[in-house]
Amino acid sequence: MSTSTNDTxxxxxxxxxxxxxPKKAVGIxxxxxxxxxxxxxxxxxxxxxxxxxxxxxxxxxxxxxxHEFYHDMRHAAGFPCH
Length: 82
Hints:
By secondary structure, this protein is mainly alpha-helical.
């Protein structure tokens, strides 16, 4: 019976496996969530340069879609509106 010293099963290499979510990914998701809540709940698209005239007319026909989108999202999210 001969014994072999050529055991290559453990060469000092280790594999690290983690079940945790990276902090950077969580931070990005939280930032997107906060920005989305701000845009829908408080800003209604103003930060993107989408505005509604002060007289409430909605501007030229066909330009009011963004305001209506944000307004409807406010209703769907349960923000007080009018």
